């Protein structure tokens, strides 16, 4: 799997992220992709050869392995890494669309193509929500497929063609458990970073919008707090709508 | 990510380190990462397939292997290198934050300094950069020591025995199990431990140098 390609694509997105987004990217590259490529792949390399059952019945080991590992943990991990990295591309696409618009109309439309405001703010928020959803989804998939991050050394199997119940043994169970815990912890760390980043950009955007809404002292309408509140809210929505179009 | 990509990241941060820091980076990549890559496939590649136990009982070899090798040496070293490289990225993050702050400050003043020229300059190790750098050194030392200790505890020293005796279920009674290439593994383990100790000594010397420099200035 050519992770270098994914990395070069993601590094391009780095320009348009916030500080927390860059920390997230470093965590993904260093603690997830590097650990996956350099260590995890090797641990699961001979997983079927090392899956041994106490039987001479041909086909029993194959059937049992297939029953207990519908998809290998390491492949699920790789899929998780790919799915979690792709929403960032939405942001890059949006910025490219803005550049395309400027080039087409041949005039400067945006003060700063990369600043997170208006439509790009929505794209960024959506990409963060998708990232978090994929992370949580894969953790849940692990939980339901493999009963958590446990890798038992012994499994008992009674699939056909195995005679009665057969003891099957997994290879390198403890090492696999350690790496699954590492994967789980980095996943939770990334979820936390996504959450913090979401709070940060929402707060920054609200601050920007609220600080633009000021009413000069001599034009203050009669004090009815509700009216001012709804007036502000309406102008915020109007502003957001104009920024979109 | 692969080791060359990590190297590019670290070399970028290297510009702001002391000469001891530059020596540390070379030792890290030549004597540890390169040796790890070489040793990983050739020496530890067949560690489970050549782990032979004197029994016909199916499952006994798996269980005994799992008991004596909860984490392979190669994986521990790989994790150690990843963790030891991370504090340097802290310094790199701080430097890029400083560059952006300086660029904004210069923009406000009216001078439009290009970010590229700001990136090319070398910041002196003083003030907040000194503290970031010192913290990164302390963390590096902690991670190195921690992983060395973990290796020592898990494998009861740095030597790989030829024979281990195992009586985990389902092995019948006591079973002799033989490890593949024990001498070669011992040599590589001692080599990596020595390289790790050299790196720790370099880090301690660099920390002492930084502290002495700060005291002289103050």
Automatic annotation (TrEMBL), chain A:
One GO BP annotation of this record: cell-cell signaling
The keyword Membrane is annotated on this UniProt entry: yes
Lineage top rank: taxon: Eukaryota
Coiled coil: none
First-listed, main subcellular location of the protein, grouped into a coarse class: other
GO MF annotations in UniProt: gap junction channel activity
UniProt domain Connexin N-terminal: residue ranges: 42-75
Subcellular location: Cell junction, Gap junction; Cell membrane
Keyword Ribonucleoprotein assigned: no
Residues covered by the Connexin cysteine-rich domain: 134-201
Protein name (Swiss-Prot/TrEMBL): Gap junction protein beta 7
Record organism: Amphiprion percula (Orange clownfish)
Automatic annotation (TrEMBL), chain B:
Coiled-coil spans in chain: none
Domain Connexin N-terminal: 42-75
Record domain Connexin cysteine-rich: where: 143-210
GO cellular component: connexin complex
Subcellular location: Cell junction, Gap junction; Cell membrane
Keywords, comma-separated and alphabetical: Cell junction, Cell membrane, Gap junction, Hearing, Membrane, Transmembrane, Transmembrane helix
Transmembrane intervals: 23-40, 74-97, 128-155, 187-212
An example Gene Ontology biological process: gap junction-mediated intercellular transport
Keyword Cell membrane among record annotations: yes
Membrane topology term: Multi-pass membrane protein
GO molecular function, one term: gap junction channel activity
Main function: One gap junction consists of a cluster of closely packed pairs of transmembrane channels, the connexons, through which materials of low MW diffuse from one cell to a neighboring cell.
Subunit and partners: A connexon is composed of a hexamer of connexins.
Family statement: Belongs to the connexin family.
UniProt-listed PANTHER family: CONNEXIN, GAP JUNCTION BETA-2 PROTEIN
Official protein name in the record: Gap junction protein
